[in-house]
């Protein structure tokens, strides 16, 4: 695709009701100085057609809410997005979303509007968040013309920041689950992985408070410092 064809790309076509819903979505809130426990967090996991950032698509979204220091099971989100038939990638062997499930999914516009209404102005958490953030941002832009501006924190970085003694900095979600002896059920489905990530995050919030990291803003600041140190050249 040339630069000029990209500039001429058509805006998503939303009907009047969808356009109204889009306009009613709340603006994201900045990470503040209220206690960690009082912050509403949305823990999200995506299943995608593959790992190519600019070619593959979001197939399903799973999310749970952490609020008042616990997972709120009354606030859960799961949606499979309807997609046109395409070549199946090996990822279908992991997440199990075959052609029939994808064909029976929700209209992507409505599903993404539902999800952003569920998120509200809350910050997002994910394990390996840069991938989920990119894929979700792209889906929202392509389907809704919406720019995702919510804070998006990476649990895969928060864990080694707060638990350096574990010495498993590059570990995946399964390794951290095993490290803390968490008993989780089904894995590799968006909602199940979001719940497993949320349970891990509850432990990490407790570790944060023990280290006097008491607010979302303080957690983000400490995480930024940790990343800068990790990326700094060693002599």
Task: State the share of residues found in helices, binned by percent.
Answer: 40-55%
* CATH architecture title: 2-Layer Sandwich
What fold name stands as the CATH topology? Nucleotidyltransferase, domain 5
Average pLDDT for all residues: 88
Q: Considering the protein shown, what is the CATH homologous superfamily? A: Ribonuclease H-like superfamily/Ribonuclease H
| Shape estimate | globular
Q: How many discrete domains?
A: 1
GO molecular function: 3'-5' exonuclease activity; nucleic acid binding
Domain Exonuclease: 40-210
Protein name: DNA polymerase III subunit epsilon
Keywords: Exonuclease, Hydrolase, Nuclease
What's the SSE blueprint?
Elements: H1 3-7, H2 16-23, E1 41-48, E2 58-67, E3 70-80, H3 92-95, H4 99-103, H5 108-119, E4 124-126, H6 129-144, E5 152-154, H7 155-162, H8 173-179, H9 190-210, H10 216-231
Parallel strand pairs: 1-4, 4-5
Antiparallel strand pairs: 1-2, 2-3
Write up what this structure looks like.
The protein has helices at 3-7, 16-23, 92-95, 99-103, 108-119, 129-144, 155-162, 173-179, 190-210, 216-231; strands spanning 41-48, 58-67, 70-80, 124-126, 152-154. With 235 residues, the protein is of the alpha/beta class. It has a five-stranded mixed sheet, sandwiched between helices. The longest helix has 21 residues, at 190-210. The radius of gyration is 18 Å and the shape is globular. Keywords: Exonuclease, Hydrolase, Nuclease. InterPro entries: Ribonucl_H (IPR013520), RNaseH-like_sf (IPR012337), RNaseH_sf (IPR036397). Residues 40-210 form the Exonuclease domain. It comes from Pseudomonas fluorescens.
